[in-house]
Design goal:
Layout lengths: L2 H13 L15 E4 L2 E4 L9 E5 L11 H8 L3 E4 L6 E4 L8 E5 L2 E3 L19 E6 L11 E6 L7 E9 L3 E12 L2 E12 L4 E3 L8 E3 L5 E14 L2 E16 L10 E18 L2 E18 L3 E20 L2 E14 L3 E14 L4 E15 L4 E15 L6 E13 L3 H5 L11 E16 L2 E26 L2 E24 L3 E14 L18 E14 L2 E12 L2 E2 L7 E2 L2 E13 L3 E10 L7 E3 L2 E2 L4 E10 L4
Parallel strand pairs: 6-9
Antiparallel strand pairs: 1-2, 3-8, 4-5, 6-7, 8-9, 10-11, 10-37, 11-12, 12-15, 13-14, 15-16, 16-17, 17-18, 18-19, 19-20, 20-21, 21-22, 22-23, 23-24, 24-25, 25-26, 26-27, 27-28, 28-29, 29-30, 30-33, 31-32, 33-34, 34-37, 35-36
Length: 636
């Protein structure tokens, strides 16, 4: 079966049929009552380019990473150093440093690198995901967008254990326990995973394209999680504890002799939150303390370490007066990279909105003050960036919405970009620019089938974008160092269509994006696509419940992922080929007298595609995974 046939088949399944005018289903996630005004946190037609889904929707089970969940359910592009290496997300082709990650409302980031490795968050903890495309008022640094991971609430007693395994020594065991102790809700979980990583790949550098085995790419990880929440007067209070560690081999590039390098990543996080209702509004505060430690050992260069401690605190106030709503946010951040630098920030955000049944208007500004220093230098910056958005819902039988947004964007250099030895550049200027989006959404029903479609076009212009480039500091000695590019212009279009029926759900999303260096017309890189920014992405999936077979409830899922070619040089002379990957999964649930047993089987990379998301970091070919989970009868 050809890749083209698969794409056409999914498109026909999703887009075919005759439409009728009906009211769309409204499935609110939560509703906040503000006096006489109701603000729904989730609508059938999302406010702007927001993608919401649950981990359950993706059909992925035990041992699946957060990256796998995002790749299956959204247009997030993942940069992976092989199947056992780090995983960093990118939206709209702007890179991981301009794509933010949040866990239960607070940002996850290593201030030294400016990115977060998703392999440090176990996938089994995540219940709901929200992907916001484009810059938003919550984080003006996120030019590409932001990813919001939620560990979910605690509703009832539940106990479960999951076992999974797969080819090349993949093993995983996870256990969860949820309980209600009076008014206190507790969720505890732990996971351990190992992966040999010695998968077979095809070396595309050599002329005969031989199949080789990846050596020294093993991985072991473990995590523990505790979430305690309790209602308090007019609100709720909670504390989250997370400890995660990953140890892996780093064999280097596939076009060179493997090295026996090792890397250890440790993450420890404490997050405290309290929310409180006030007259026609709400008030909440939260504090997060984070400690990360990266240890890298190379047989030639020896051992190096990057240890970073961070503490964030923020307060949010929401107040409604009639149809006017005011949202105020104040936050402080303190980060310290041991032996490298110190970073302090003050953040403020104010947004005023007026809401009605047809027209919502929102405007505001983000401000920041930052002071960064190391042993030799000190640097202070300040910025204010406005944002405006308008949402219009015409009074039609079809549920339709139009959303327009324009926002200023701003990003300070990271600690590594400024002070890393060797290669840091303390003279870097901060990035700044402007971005705008226009989104049209519609929901309608065709007999018993609900259709939801959306199209977004966007454009952004970024000045002083920071790009790492190789520099020769001596004969035969090359060091990568960051520098500012004068102007980068990006534009793109994003399309999605979801079809929901009684026992079937299908989804198709695609994007085309272009990010060009427009600095110097005499440069070879002028007008060319930036490195590692794919021009097109496609995601398609079909979930089907096939009913009762052998006293079990069976579900089948087929998914397809396509990523277009990526240029690995700034003048577009070398290309990383595009690739298409398919997956098939089958799950069956059996209800026994005292427990519920779920078994699943997955065929990953079913087309046996040869691909890399990062050059010379090959990904595995066709392989299987399977697992089983046992739940007590009190679990839904």
């Amino acid at each position: 079966m050809s890749h083209t046939f698969v794409l056409v088949t999914i498109s026909v399944l999703l887009l075919g049929g005759i439409t009728e005018e009906v009211q769309a289903q409204v499935l609110p996630d939560s509703v906040i009552e503000l006096g006489t005004l109701e603000i729904q946190d989730s609508l059938t037609v999302s406010l702007g380019p927001i993608w919401k889904f649950s981990a359950q929707d993706t059909g992925l089970r035990g041992g699946s990473s957060v990256g796998s969940i995002l790749s299956a359910g959204s247009l997030v592009h993942l940069m992976q150093a092989g199947d056992t290496g780090s995983i960093t997300p990118s939206l709209r082709g702007v890179g991981s440093a301009r794509t933010s990650v949040f866990l239960d409302g607070m940002r996850l980031v290593n201030p030294a690198t400016g990115v977060f490795d998703l392999s440090l968050i176990p996938g089994f903890l995540i219940r709901d995901v929200e992907v916001v495309h484009g810059s938003n008022g919550k984080d003006p640094n996120a030019l590409g967008g932001s990813i919001h991971l939620s560990t979910g609430g605690i509703e009832q007693e539940a106990r479960s254990v999951s076992l999974s395994g797969g080819r090349w020594g993949r093993r995983s065991v996870a256990s969860q326990y949820e309980t209600l102790m009076g008014r206190t809700r507790v969720r505890a979980a732990a996971q351990a995973e190992s992966y040999g990583g010695d998968y077979v790949y095809q070396n595309t550098v050599l002329l005969d394209r031989p199949k080789l085995r990846r050596i020294g790419a093993d991985k072991r990880s473990g995590s523990a999680y505790l979430h305690v929440s309790r209602p308090v007067k007019k609100g709720d209070a909670s504390i989250l504890l997370l400890a995660s560690t990953v140890e892996r081999g780093v064999p280097g590039l596939s076009n060179a002799t493997p090295v026996e390098a090792r890397q250890e990543d440790h993450l420890y996080r404490v997050q405290v939150k309290q929310s409180r209702s006030i007259n026609a509004g709400s008030l909440n505060w939260q504090v997060a303390a984070n400690s990360s430690n990266l240890v890298f050992e190379h047989p030639v260069s020896g051992a190096s370490q990057l240890k970073v401690h961070t503490i964030d605190a923020e307060a949010n106030a929401l107040k409604a007066v009639g149809r006017w709503v005011s949202s105020t946010h104040i936050g402080v951040e303190r980060s310290r990279a041991i032996g490298l630098s110190d970073d302090r920030r003050l953040l403020a955000r104010q947004t005023i909105s007026r809401m009605s049944q047809m027209l919502d208007v929102s405007f505001g500004a983000n401000g920041s003050l930052r002071r960064t220093s190391n042993q030799d230098r000190e640097r202070s910056t300040a910025a204010i960036r406005p944002h405006v958005s308008i949402s219009f819902s015409p009074p039609l039988k079809r549920k339709a919405q139009f959303f327009w947004k324009i926002a200023g964007i701003y990003r300070d250099p990271t600690l590594n970009e400024l002070f890393w030895v060797p290669g840091g550049n303390p003279l870097l200027r901060s990035e700044s620019g402007l971005t705008t989006d226009l989104t049209a959404s519609i929901a309608l029903r065709q007999r018993s089938v609900l259709h939801q479609a959306r199209v977004t076009v966007y454009h952004h212009s970024l000045r002083e974008q920071i790009v790492w480039r190789p520099q020769f500091i001596a004969t035969g000695l090359q060091v990568w160092t960051p520098e500012n590019i004068g102007v980068v212009v990006g534009q793109g279009i994003e399309l999605s269509h979801t079809l929901s029926a009684n026992k079937m759900r299908a989804h198709l999303s695609m994007s085309w994006m272009r990010s060009q260096d427009r600095t110097d017309p005499s440069s070879r890189s002028f007008g060319k696509q930036l490195r590692y920014h794919p021009q097109r992405l496609l995601r398609g999936s079909i979930n089907r419940n096939v009913g009762q077979i052998l006293k079990g409830n069976w579900d089948v899922r087929v998914s397809l992922t396509h990523t277009g070619p990526q240029f690995v040089t700034s003048d577009e002379t070398r290309t990383l080929p595009g690739w298409t990957r398919a997956a098939l999964s089958i799950e069956a649930g059996f209800r026994l007298p005292k427990v519920l047993v779920n078994g699943w089987f997955a065929l990953d990379n079913a087309l046996d595609s040869v691909y890399e998301t990062t050059r010379f970091q090959p990904m595995p070919g066709r392989h299987i995974r399977m697992g089983i989970s046992i739940h007590d009868r009190l679990t839904k």
